[in-house]
């Protein structure tokens, strides 16, 4: 498993404080021995982090299958550069393919619909995600590997699929991701002895007080840090939109269409 905090398992806590998430859920479905499962991911990771810091350990492990969940953190940073992201992603897929691994990346949904961002920030993030998906699509097409489209995963835009921060999947969300990956593996000819259940079990019970504590201690500070990078981009979109409206003038109503 390579990637960011979703790959770490955030949103699916276990009793005792550890995280579970999509990787272990899928490993259980495949019947993978725990000793054969390696999670190289860490919170805050970007695609360049996967290439520089996570890939060497993954290559040494020589996996049969590698899940890659990364890219959303890149969309929130001021140095967002799609062609550089594509180059790093291409390097990761090429290196893992040389070891015989099947790499399963993801392409992203419109997360502004989940997080309920203000209009300009939502448009800015949606544009960034579109550019990120374009880079991912190009690399996936070049390598001919399956890709999990999060926009098409059932339940993606339902709040029950997300933890209280609306940034990370809930236990149900992680189960939906694991099932999506297992479907791709089944289509690729891999045996899935125990289909991923969508019934939540084994995770820690999270109280309303836990939710509020997370939001105050981590959620709001996180949004403040990331917003400082995204807000200038959003402001640029607003200014360009206003300039376009001035050039085009008032919108004319279309004449009604008359049937003949």
SSE layout and pairing:
Blueprint (H helix, E strand, L loop, with lengths): L1 E2 L1 H4 L13 H9 L16 H15 L3 E5 L2 H4 L6 H17 L3 E6 L4 H4 L3 H25 L4 E2 L21 H17 L20 H41 L12
Parallel strand pairs: 1-2, 2-3, 3-4
Number of domains: 1
Overall helicity: 40-55%
Radius of gyration based on Cα positions: 20 Å
The counted number of beta strands is: 4
Largest sheet: 4 strands, parallel
Q: Which class best fits the helix and strand makeup? A: mainly alpha
CATH second-level architecture: 3-Layer(aba) Sandwich
Question: What overall geometry do the principal axes of the alpha carbons give?
Answer: globular
First and last CA, distance: 61 Å
What's the SSE pattern? EHHHEHHEHHEHH
Average residue-wise pLDDT: 86
Identify the CATH class: Alpha Beta
Number of helices, where a helix is a run of at least 4 consecutive DSSP H or I residues: 9
Low-pLDDT residue intervals, each spanning 5 or more residues? 250-260
Strand portion = 5-15%
Give the strand order of the largest sheet, numbering strands 1, 2, ... along the chain. Answer: 1-2-3-4
Q: CATH-wise, what's the superfamily?
A: SGNH hydrolase
Keywords: Hydrolase
GO molecular function, one term: hydrolase activity
Protein name: SGNH/GDSL hydrolase family protein
Organism: Prauserella cavernicola
